[in-house]
Write a structure and sequence with these properties.
Number of domains: 2
CATH superfamily of the largest domain: NAD(P)-binding Rossmann-like Domain
Number of strands: 8
CATH class of the largest domain: Alpha Beta
Largest sheet: 8 strands, mixed
Distance between the termini: 34 Å
Helix content: 40-55%
């Protein structure tokens, strides 16, 4: 059981929209905030399409798509997050922007509201330090795509209260997710391995060792991954990968975490991945959650 009833998601991009699906699908009233109405409209459209497709495939019961969508609400007014028992931040990896967001949220949300960050690289303690409620702050790193992947890396900051962590953990379970406990260290578990690994795949392309298609086939066939590293990078986006690399490399100085030059060139060419229709692969469908 969890005492969380209403969930806020700050950020209506691919990650935030996916998190919102998980919460609404589990029956939680879900309020999605973004500064751009067009982002909210796009997220709702794609969410509706994904839920309907899930129902058609038997992943949701009859009427399940409409029920979940009925729990979904979009807003451009940050003060609407005052109704939330928990707010999950899912914006890009910039500590100053995150601090600004949480500082504003702290002004609007009641004391009971727990704040969480979906960061995958930045210290939870550092983000919490600018939130105004470090004791009611926790890391909840969902895996991309959030609406399909069950894992959540749960990370307490140095000042996170045991009660806050326990409440967030039970909420993760109530959504049907699989939480694992991690310490507040760069990359937690997954991105500690994944960012350098993905960069290695990019460098194979840079060096002409193999083309993206064959690299992805090799990894999926031999290692059993459901998605190749370059397919995943196209889903994440080159702009996001650059921010992830800069954050991870800045914290660890690990050479493999440094952003490969090819990523910067692809950004300059607007080859960001699936969202622009071309990255390491070419896409005819640029929908947020696919067909």
């Amino acid at each position: 059981m969890t005492n969380i009833q209403t969930v806020g998601v700050a950020g209506a991009g691919t990650m935030g929209a996916g998190i919102a699906i998980v919460a609404a699908r589990a029956g939680f009233r879900t309020i999605v905030f973004d500064t751009r109405q067009e982002a909210l409209d796009h997220a709702k459209e794609q969410t509706s399409a994904f839920l309907k497709k899930s129902e058609e495939r038997g992943k949701l019961p009859a009427g399940g798509a409409a029920a979940a969508l009925g729990k979904w609400e979009g807003t451009t007014k940050l003060e609407d997050m005052a109704r939330c028992d928990l707010v999950i931040e899912a914006i890009f990896e910039d500590i100053k922007v995150k601090h600004q967001l949480f500082s504003e949220l702290n002004k609007h949300c009641p004391e009971k509201t727990i704040f969480a960050s979906n960061t995958s690289t930045i210290s939870i303690t550092e983000i919490a330090g600018g939130s105004g409620r470090a004791d009611r702050f926790v890391g909840m790193h969902f895996c991309l795509p959030a609406q399909l992947m069950k894992l959540i890396e749960m990370s307490p900051g140095m000042n996170t209260s045991p009660e806050t962590f326990d409440t967030a953990w039970k909420f993760a379970q109530a959504m049907g997710q699989k939480p694992v406990a991690t310490q507040d260290t760069p990359g937690f578990i997954l991105n500690y391995f994944l960012i350098p690994f993905n960069n290695d795949a990019i460098r194979l392309v840079e060096q002409g060792v193999a083309d993206p298609r064959d690299i992805d086939i090799a990894v999926k066939t031999a290692l059993g991954y459901p998605m190749g590293p370059l397919e995943l990078l196209d889903l994440v986006g080159m702009d996001t990968q650059k921010l992830l690399c800069e954050a991870m490399h800045g914290l660890t100085q690990e050479s493999r975490a440094a952003c490969p030059p090819l990523v910067r060139r692809m950004i300059a060419a607007n080859r960001l991945g699936k969202k622009t229709g071309v990255g390491f692969h070419t896409y005819g469908n640029t929908k947020m959650f696919g067909a």
